[in-house]
Design goal:
Layout (H helix, E strand, L loop, with lengths): L2 H13 L2 H8 L3 H15 L4 E4 L2 E4 L1 H24 L6 E7 L1 H15 L6 E7 L2 H10 L4 E5 H7 L5 E14 L10 E2 L1 H4 L3 E4 L25 E5 L3 H9 L4 E5 L2 H4 L4 E5 L7 E8 L3 H9 L1
Parallel strand pairs: 3-4, 3-5, 7-11, 8-9, 8-10
Antiparallel strand pairs: 1-2, 5-12, 6-10, 6-11, 6-12
Length: 289
């Protein structure tokens, strides 16, 4: 049983898809498939059930998951010891890219204390995968919304409210509405929109409802679909369309501006929590208080 194969196995088990895991590990899917087959051969049992293009951990895979985390950590600590190194403390933070972009800076500032060597690993995944990884010991902190926490909180987990993500209508400098600060909904709906196909939080395909806009009341003319938030911001910055964007994007992307819709009765706000199976979330809460 090879440690490198165990490392790959942990990524595959978290993402449940060989191609997605291959992208994260910068390997080809075929190379990753061979790694998985070597591991299953060495243990004498399959670790996954194949369901279409997805992989689902079976009972043996579930048993191995927690032990693989310990074996990889032990291998890293042993290598550092024999090289005469003092391994730094590590904090593995998992969650959707949209939440990491919103809270990475503040979390890092709270966790990294003066004189303490802490390596913070940010791993992108959707909320259910982050909470699953936390329960298996593959993550130290999971960044998730209140809705995800209510559905799948690990046993004995500690959670701390770290902030909110509020959605706003966004406009770029080249757009016909760029000089406006307020606009009526009827005028907004005359313009093209860009929208994500999957929720940036849970990854579920909800079509035009994925970004939180109430298309059931105010149906938009969606011309561009893009799950990549960077691409979404670029489309808006080029003045090609409007989009419903998270509030932090207006601070991080010069040129993006929020546009107030005077007659919209709806608001989309996601409460965000740092969840930990240990005391890590508690320390974040103390630092933020």
């Amino acid at each position: 049983m090879d440690i490198a194969d165990l490392r790959s196995y942990l990524v595959i088990s978290r993402l449940a898809n060989l191609r997605a895991a291959a992208d994260v590990l910068h390997q080809t899917p075929s190379a990753l498939s061979k790694s998985l087959k070597r591991l299953e051969s060495s243990l004498g049992t399959p670790l996954f059930d194949r369901v279409g293009k997805s992989l689902r951990l079976n009972a043996a895979g579930e048993r191995l998951a927690a032990r693989a985390v310990e074996l990889v950590a032990l291998a890293d600590a042993t290598a550092a010891e024999f090289k005469g190194q003092v391994p730094p403390s590590r904090c593995r933070v998992m969650g959707p890219p949209v939440l990491q972009a919103a809270f990475a800076a503040s979390l890092t500032a709270q966790m990294v204390h003066a004189g303490e060597r802490v390596v913070v690993d940010f791993v992108s995944c959707f909320e259910d995968a982050a909470l699953t990884a936390l329960g298996r010991g593959e993550a130290d902190l999971a960044l998730v919304t209140a809705a995800a926490l209510a559905q799948a909180a690990p046993a004995q987990a500690t959670s701390v409210h770290v902030g909110d993500v509020r959605m706003h209508l966004g406009v770029g400098p080249g757009h016909p509405l760029a000089r406006r600060t307020q606009v009526a909904m009827a005028e907004v709906l005359h313009h093209d929109f860009a929208c994500v196909e999957r929720s940036p939080f849970c990854g579920i395909d909800r079509g035009s409802r994925s970004d939180g806009w109430r298309d059931d009341h105010f149906p938009r003319r969606i011309r561009y679909w893009a799950d990549d938030l960077d691409l979404l911001y670029t489309l808006v910055l080029q003045g090609l369309c409007l989009a419903y964007l998270p509030d932090f994007a207006f601070e991080q992307r010069p040129g993006l501006r929020p546009l107030s819709v005077t007659d919209c009765p709806f608001d989309c706000v996601e409460r965000v929590y740092a969840v930990s199976a240990s005391r890590a979330a508690q320390s974040v809460g103390r630092s933020s208080s």
